[in-house]
Structure formats: C-alpha cells, structure tokens
C-alpha cells in the first residue's frame, strides 16, 4: 500500500502545490485526492482533460453516498477526473459545510485509499492533500491508514516551531508517544520544507536536528523549492518549461529520496498482465499543465 497524506499546521505553506508537484512526478500511477475538509482548490485553478472546467460535483462530494454503502477501492475511479496534463484527481469539497456529508466516513476513505495500490484492476498510490489540520480535524482520521504523513512547512521560526509541535502531537496520537523515528511504526511522520534552494541543505539539517532533539518522532525527508513562478506554471497560469522549474526539479528529488528510503515497503502494484504499470502521473509522462511540454496560460 502507499497512501501519502500531506498536511500543514497553520497558514498557507503550499500544501496543494506540493501535493500536485509530487503527484505530477510520482514514479508510478497515482491518484491525487483533495481531502481538505475546508474545501479544495483544483476546481478553481486547473482545467479538465477535455479543456473545460472540472466538475465540482464529481469527487469527494459524490463519493459520500457511495461510501455510506461501503467502498471497494476500485470504486474511487468512478469519482475521478483527469486534468489537462493527465493527472487523475479526486476533486475536493466546495465549501467546509459540505464536510458534514463525510462525517464518519473518513476511516472508510482511508482504507480505500490505502488499498488502491493492491487493486487487481487499476492499482495506484494515493497522495492526499489534507490541508491544514489540528487535533480535531476529520482528515486526521486518514492518517492511521497512511504509509507516510508529510507535514509541509516554511522556514520562518514560527512555522518551524509549529511543525515541531504538530509532529510531536501526531506521533503521540498515532503511536502513543513521541519517540525516535526509527522506533515508530506506520505511518511515519516526515517534514517537507518549502525553502529557497540556496539555503535548503543547511535549513534541512538544522530543522532535522531540532526535530530529533525534541523527540518528535519525525524527521525532514526533503525540501520543495520556494518557486512562485513554477507554482504559477503548475497551475497553468504562466507559460514556461514546467519540467525545468525549480519546483518540479525539487519535487523529483523528494520523490526519488522517498522511494530510496521507503520504496521497498511499498509493494509494486501489478496490472492484470502482471507488469507494473506507471499511469498518467508517472514521471516524465504526464502531469498538470502539460508536464510533457509547455504550461498553458490561462487554464
């Protein structure tokens, strides 16, 4: 299984941008799920494969009725829409009030997301954009089913302090206590920093030392470039060679490191023919805003 949950403690560190960037270069088929109870953003910032807008009613909103009767992982695909670059997405809620319709269903969704990689028909990993979370956020009910929970943080002192405290709180909630990362079971809690590339290595080491010293049970697993131009390209609002952007290059490094560290634990999904098959989100093949070519303006 491989459910990867992305979240932040407070503010707007770029969880959605990080989730889309990682999904766009993920080395095998991936489903990007917008699971933020406050509502999703992709319906406003991305175009569907047919060139028009995404349907806001097909996604997390439509899956609620299905999940109440039980949810087989392959049923997730009935609620998925492809973006213009090929990335398959489960569009998020429109507004936070709609989250009431998912009350009690988050564990069911978590199990389905985690089991999708083992589907005999259409296996895929799931990257879940959980947005901002607190102790009572319903999206945290997905975390026990994840292989990895990634906290996205910027590098201002207050942001680092919050991610330290959030990581410790999650380790306590998920594992009964904040201990060394090597002693914790799944899900592992990792931190991804959004940082200037010139300072990324130094900051990563400093923050990791702080997390270890505080016995949070978390560690830094990578850095995403603070690249506003690349984020605009990823959203289709700016032209450019997206695959050459600092954002995408750093996302490739993060995914490569994640697979080097954890890939052996994530069994390779196989299709009906027995061959592992990367799907539309596979590295170098597709992604939002035309990952195989130029980003299109105004999408």
What would you say this structure looks like, in words?
By secondary structure, the chain is an alpha/beta fold. The chain contains eight helices and eight strands; from the N terminus they run βαβααββαββαβαβαα. It has helices spanning 15-24, 42-45, 60-67, 106-115, 157-175, 200-213, 228-234, 246-262, and strands at 3-8, 30-34, 81-82, 88-90, 125-132, 148-153, 188-195, 218-225. An eight-stranded mixed beta sheet has the order 3-4-2-5-1-6-7-8, with helices on both faces. Helix 6 (200-213) links the parallel strand 7 (188-195) and strand 8. Helix 1 crosses helix 8 (246-262). The longest helix is centred in the middle third of the chain and has 19 residues, at 157-175. The chain is globular, with a radius of gyration of 18 Å. The protein starts with a strand and ends in a 37-residue tail after the last helix.
Pick out its properties.
299 residues, alpha/beta, eight-stranded mixed beta sheet, 8 strands
List the helices and strands and how they pair.
Layout: E1 3-8, H1 15-24, E2 30-34, H2 42-45, H3 60-67, E3 81-82, E4 88-90, H4 106-115, E5 125-132, E6 148-153, H5 157-175, E7 188-195, H6 200-213, E8 218-225, H7 228-234, H8 246-262
Parallel strand pairs: 1-5, 1-6, 2-4, 2-5, 6-7, 7-8
Antiparallel strand pairs: 3-4
Helix pairs in contact: 1-8
Enumerate how many helices there are, as a single number.
8
Please mark out the parts with pLDDT under 50 across 5 or more consecutive residues, or reply none.
Answer: 268-290, 292-299
β content, as a range?
Answer: 15-25%
Morphology: globular
State the total count of DSSP E strands: 8
Question: Radius of gyration in whole Å, from Cα?
Answer: 18 Å
Rounded mean pLDDT score = 84
Question: If strands are numbered along the chain, what order do they take across the biggest sheet?
Answer: 3-4-2-5-1-6-7-8
Q: So what's the oligomer here? A: single chain
User: From the helix content, strand content and strand pairing, which structural class follows?
Assistant: alpha/beta
Please describe the biggest sheet, giving its number of strands, its sense, and whether it closes into a barrel: 8 strands, mixed
**Cα-to-Cα separation, first versus last residue:** 33 Å
* Percent of residues in helices: 25-40%
- Helices and strands, in order, run as EHEHHEEHEEHEHEHH
